[in-house]
Amino acid sequence: MQESIMRTSSADLYDAYVLKNYARAPITLVRGKGSRVWDDQGNGYLDFSSGLAVSALGHCHPHWVAAVQRQAGELIHTSNLFRNPNQAELAKRLAGYCGPGRLFFCNSGAEANETLLKLARLHGIRKSGEEGKCFHVICAQRAFHGRTFGGMSATPQEKIQKGFRPLVPGFAFGELNNLESFAALVDERTAAIFVETIQGEGGVNPCTPEFLAGLRQLCDRNNLLLMIDEVQCGIGRTGRFFAFEHAGIRPDAIGMAKGLAGGFPIGAMWVSERSAELFQPGMHGTTFGGTPLACAAALAVLDVIEREKLLAHVTRESVPWIEAVTRFSTDFPAVVKGVRGRGFMIGLQLADDPAPLVTALRERGLLTAAAGGNVIRMLPPLNATADELRLSVEIFRSVLSAKA
Ligand SMILES: *Cc1c(COP(=O)(O)O)cnc(C)c1O
Under CATH, to which class is 75-307 assigned? Predict the structure, then answer.
């Protein structure tokens, strides 16, 4: 027996050493290329989980790899004690998508959203003239804004909050797409409204354009910030750079993360010119935010989205794909109750717990992601080809046929 090949399996090491806070699939992924990943047994998968909407360019896109390799050999981290050219360039490029305003860089979606929640507090002081008087934030039922205390407090889901109370005070929850229910929650303590354009973890629940336009008016009438969480639905996923663009509105602040650096950890907040001055030196920060390496990865993502015209690609290719997937609800009505979403962010509403179907799909070579409310999400890379989209439909159909 050779000592060198007696390595303990990843499964055993996870069992022994890794915190048991996830219900992980029993496969170990070791390699990726484009829309495909392979496990340590050599099995290939079509990856339409995209690492939870993160791998926007698929795996190991050559332009992304070259940019990250180049930057890793040049300068990786400096902290925000100093400027670095990549952060400067990324802020400018993102402002081009967001509008006049300023960017703050951090490392995750939750951290981006914490920044938005702190912005709401500062706006409340500007509005009321003192601290602690105007700090309420109205969010949506079934929202998901992250696992930090602020994020959890903005996430009205028992499975997320249970065990961690008391939470941060000052959150209220309106019914999605019911403007009256949001309006009824506004009072003099309200500082901001905070919603995802399309709820992701909550089950792929889109805001209607009318609802978003109504929230914009409600905020304008009451001097509230309209803050949009585009952590999952942003960065091209719906065929526009931001999903709220479909509604023709402009928010006061935007949270971004997941797809922004194509797999490298990053988060960002954009805030409009009018509120950018609320943050002054020393009021907020993070050690890792906006490193040369993270920003190089994000710039590579923006390059590829622009050069390969991925917004137009998502818009065009999603139409037949969503049509084909929507047919499941007429062909397999006992299992699939409906299909929601836009572009490359779709959710199939199932009759029951999605876990067995997620497993069956994986065993047939298609990776998907469950979401709340018995939903299965498909989140292909933005550059998934028409053939790959068709293949996902074939695999899905064959699994549903076997089940029916
Ligand atoms: C994933 C997600 C978050 C949290 O992002 P993390 O990087 O996991 O902290 C926040 N909001 C939305 C809409 C998300 O999908």
Answer: alpha beta
